[in-house]
Design a protein that fits this description.
The chain is mainly beta. It is built from three helices and 17 strands. A ten-stranded antiparallel β-barrel has the order 5-6-7-8-9-12-13-15-16-17. Strands 4-14 form a two-stranded antiparallel sheet. A hairpin with a 2-residue loop joins strand 15 and strand 16. The N terminus is likely disordered.
Length: about 375
Amino acid sequence: MMPCRMRPPFTLILAMAFFTLFAGSAGAEPVVTIESPLLRNASESLQAMLDESIAEFSGQINDLVSETVDKPDFLAGSARAAAQAVLVPSTIHAPAKPYIGLGCAGSFYSPWLNTDVVSNLDDLDVTEDIDAGACVEPLVIRGGLPLNFLMQGLSVAANAGYMNAETGSFGVKSLTAGLSAAYEVFPAKSGAIAWDGLSVTVGGDFARQKLSVTVEANTVTEVIPIDPDGVGPLASFDATVMVDPVIRAGVETTVFSAHAGATTGVTFFRALSLFAGFGATAGWTNTEITIDSKDPISVSGYLGDLIETPGTIGISGTAAERRSAFVSPYIAAGLTLTVGAVDLSIPVSIKPFDSIGTGIFIGVKL
């Protein structure tokens, strides 16, 4: 045999097609990139056979990735959870003085707020779909300013948040922003037990979040028959090709929404305020699953002893995507504890009957 030490003259690029998830879904095509192992002291024909067989081997990778990321229910749940989370800061009853605060918020979605899926997470297979979702806003800055010089009882509030952190196999990256205006239809009263009046609020919110996790999928193995001389006298033999995919999967959600609502409350001894309200929110979401991996190709059998340079298989791109519009009512409640110029607020918002969001914020009245 003539020695063959040249890298194969091409890198195999194969597009994987995914079925449309459901109405409202957008097409997505991740790419599988295969670099075949380089054989030493082997004929060009034997190298070509190995290249061709490994190219066909990509079909199993296609099936594996399809099972791992084909999750229409989870995509929808992530979008609904994100839409709920961005609503949380704006449900806090606006004070009548300038303020600035810091806090965090999060939300959970599941039909009828069923938490069984949480307790069963350890038993879920990577190929299973779940009708649930979650969203976190780990760090949110809030600020507000009365505009009584323009109109008595008018105020504006804004919030923004950012986080980029990884812990072990998990990561979260989020960017949020919101702007709202409130008007006191009925002004607040004073006294030991005082009505806080009635305010109406309108505003808009934006959120972009990416939750990422490292998924160790099932081993993919293919036994490839190799006939070195076709119809010649040399006997054929088998080569076993194996890949242990480690996929970095991310669920990325983008939300644009608007909301309108009314809030009222009662304050006890100028220290504890209980507030409640209701309203509606509408908007647009886009949720997608992205994948990224690059794993070595293991070859055993006779060809395993001839490997000079190991091959790799990589998967990258958007694997599934869902776009949707939504309109939903919500109810809100919470409390604010005030000590001097400092207040602690815990708002809760619920969209009947599938998602809940809450947060905790510490603010200073200026």
